[in-house]
Amino acid sequence: MSTRALSRRNFLALSGTAAASLVAAACVAPEVAPAAGEGEPMMETIELNHWGFSGPIWESIWEAIPDTYPNLKVNPTEIGDIVFGDQKYLTAVAAGTGPDTALQGRHTFLQFAAKGLYYDVTDQFDASDLNRDDYTPVQLNETVWEGKIYGLPWDTDVRFLYWNRDHFAEVGLDPDQPPTTWAELEEYTDKLNIRDGDEVVRYGFVPYLYGNSWMWLWAFQAGAPSLSDDKRTVLCDDQIWIDTLQWLVDFYDNYVGDFESANSFQQGLQSAGLGLPFVAGKTSMSATGSWHVGDLLRSPGVDYGTAPAPIPAGGMKSTWSCGFSIIMAPGSEHPEEAFQVMRWFTGTPGWDALATADVAEAKRTWEREQLEGDPKFWPRLACYLPALEHLEKTYLPELGEIENSTWALSLDALRNWTHGCGSVMGLAALQYWVEMDNAARNALSKQMTPEEAMLNCKTLVQEATDQAWESIDNA
Amino acid sequence: MAATTPTLSTPTARGFWKSLRGREALSFYLFIAPWTLGFLAFILGPILASLALGFTQYDIILPAKWVGLKNFRDLIADPLFRISLGNTVYIVLMAVPLGMVVSFLIALLLNQKVRGMAAYRTGYFIPSIVPAVASAALWLYLLQPQWGLVNGFLDLFGIKGPTWLASTTWSKPSIIMLMVWASGGTMIIYLAGLQDIPDTLYEAASIDGASWLRRLVHVTIPLMTPTIFFTLVMGIIGTFQVFSVVFVLTDGMGGPLNSTLVYLIYVYRNAFVFFRMGYASALSLILFLIILVLTLANVRLAGRWVYSEVEME
């Protein structure tokens, strides 16, 4: 007779049963909708889950939706990084527990749409009061995969050159004349650089590392292609990319110096609480996005101008845009209401609610940081054109000349000379973004030649693109 | 009658649980139950699934497609696999011995009988209970090139400090410093081991005229070898799986220029950034095999240097 009342086997069996019970208990049974009956209100409140940004501003926006749709309540949840990847969204949708609607970065939109991660809203779009020309065309186009609409574009941005007029005057440059070519950019940078022995006091201009241009801005100006028309062939090994990267490397060699030092100079400014180099007066020019006007409004001491970024000889005026779109997740139990939310959020009422919340936040910021002057608000660029017009009419008259001219520059770029980040990166957008960044950093820090770096990018991104297409072709 | 009468040699089940052995068994099962339940409910399934997924191409959305050994063949040609494994081995080779030596020396100091020892012990232990994210954020400030305390200290001696986390040369040493700083857990284990050594052995050695150093070499270290062995094995296993600190310090990228791309960051990137679950599972399987082989080798070699009152095979 055994002296062990609980054998190891029995213990493991019991543990397994208990664990299975634990898992079973954790799985929530699907809620059964209550049957309509007498005495119940005519209009049932429908709660929708939205994944995107959160915080007081966003809660107040979603609190405004019953003003338009009294039967809707939106519960917002923040899920971390939604610019690239959005792991939680993907895994939740794969497990059938996704939200009703979500904000999604436009970099990866096509990559995810092609995998069936977004609900096709074409029919709802066509049945609604919306027209395709209500939206900025580049951004609407980025929500379309194989002729179907998979989301509504919400906001966007454009990138251009900012220059510090005081710095220009200080070194004898005309404060009203920014550089317009790469040659002038080099010449101006040389004049604007200030060093004290080996120490950098001020950079004239630091492409790539400072601001938000990446390699895309410079290469697009030189006319570089990113993908073949059928989006199956990656073209980052094109000679224009290699030449562009070579120009960046030469620029560092001649006017910036060591890549690591420039990087740590910027990190130093930020950890010392001095903010971005252009705002801190530590660089005289910056190629970055339209949102930077908001940063500069909080730093009224910087007298600046904005213009299209300088272009190479034989190049073209160009920039790139990104931003977010709102989508409906497959499996939403309320597709009609979810589309109403999408429509409201990207439409004028949603933008109005956001602007009201942003203005209140600007007031709090001015008080908290004890900033000089009246609180000022720089609106984001809406993709829905009536909302964009509404924002312009409501908020631009309160701003100064430079903000108004920058707004006009942004709209001109949006209409005429921008590329959409989503459409240029294709079905392996994440890999394209990461490998392009690796290529630039490898070349700028002299780990690879520009040609080696771009060929390496081509190999890795092409492999990922081939895999993505293979999945689609075999589906 | 005799058949129904319990005897001393055949206790009933109820009687067993009242016996000393039964109470010990009950305690044992209760203590291991939380871990066992958690393991069975949340870990065993993913482990088995990962083993199988290593032989598939799987992007979470579309069904997994069997590709045989393709993932493993791709690994051989993948430069980032080699880089990430190289970075991890470098960190293991540096951080594990360094952490053990520093912890051992601190444990020796903290084993002295002086006033305020509890405060010193607490002070050295605190870094190990600081969450990885908080300690990484702290070290980001300390290692900041222009205004960080570390370079400020070096500046006192006229040394221009490196750019630490922004430098491909110094990024791995920065991470190793952080890991050694947070090795208070190992120190506590050593301290417990040191306090287990009977004073009579030191007294006997002293009577024989042994100096402090000889007592350390011939009494303390031999008797500490089981503890050292345990920390070595756990250190290797844990350091091969370094992730959160590097993730926070490098914003999840393993930069600059992949110089801190440790193995698990690369697994994570493939799984949750590029959604190559099959490839990430193959990478995980390789890491499992590496750790398994090293642990078995450690156990096999232990007999040569670990002192034990129970003979080791």
Class per helix and strand makeup of chain A: alpha/beta
Largest sheet report of chain B: 2 strands, antiparallel
**Any idea how many domains of chain B?**
1
Strand line-up of the largest beta sheet of chain B = 1-2
Shape of chain B: globular
Q: Which class do the helix and strand fractions of chain B yield? A: mainly alpha
Q: How far is the N terminus from the C terminus of chain B?
A: 49 Å
Tell me the greatest interface: A-B, 45 and 40 residues
**How much of the polypeptide of chain B forms β-strand, as a percent range?**
under 5%
Task: State the low-pLDDT regions of chain B, or none.
Answer: 1-9
Walk me through the structure.
The complex is a heterodimer of chains A (475) and B (313). By secondary structure, chain A is an alpha/beta fold. Helices cover 47% and strands 14% of the residues of chain A. Chain A is built from 20 helices and 16 strands. In chain A, the strands form five sheets. A five-stranded mixed sheet of chain A has the order 2-1-3-14-6. Chain A has a five-stranded mixed sheet with strand order 9-10-11-8-12. In chain A, strands 4-5 form a two-stranded antiparallel ribbon. In chain A, helix 19 packs antiparallel against helix 20 (450-474). Chain B has 313 residues and is mostly helical. In chain B, 28% of the residues are buried. A two-stranded antiparallel ribbon of chain B has the order 1-2. In chain B, a hairpin with a 7-residue loop joins strand 1 (56-57) and strand 2. At the A-B interface, helix 1, helix 4, helix 12, helix 19 and helix 20 of A face helix 1 and helix 2 of B.
How do you describe this structure in short?
With 475 residues, chain A is an alpha/beta fold.
Task: List strands and helices in order, with pairings.
The complex is a heterodimer of chains A (475) and B (313).
Chain A: H1 8-26, E1 46-52, H2 56-63, H3 65-68, E2 72-78, H4 87-94, E3 101-105, H5 109-114, H6 122-127, H7 137-141, E4 144-145, E5 148-149, E6 152-153, E7 155-156, E8 159-164, H8 165-170, H9 182-192, E9 194-196, E10 199-205, H10 214-221, H11 239-256, H12 259-271, E11 283-289, H13 292-297, E12 304-307, E13 319-321, E14 324-328, H14 335-346, H15 348-368, E15 381-382, H16 385-395, H17 401-416, E16 418-420, H18 421-425, H19 429-444, H20 450-474
Parallel strand pairs in A: 1-2, 1-3, 10-11, 13-16
Antiparallel strand pairs in A: 3-14, 4-5, 6-14, 7-15, 8-11, 8-12, 9-10
Helix pairs in contact in A: 2-15, 11-20, 15-16, 19-20
Chain B: H1 13-18, H2 20-53, E1 56-57, E2 65-66, H3 70-77, H4 79-110, H5 117-129, H6 132-142, H7 149-156, H8 171-181, H9 184-195, H10 199-207, H11 212-240, H12 244-249, H13 263-273, H14 277-305
Antiparallel strand pairs in B: 1-2
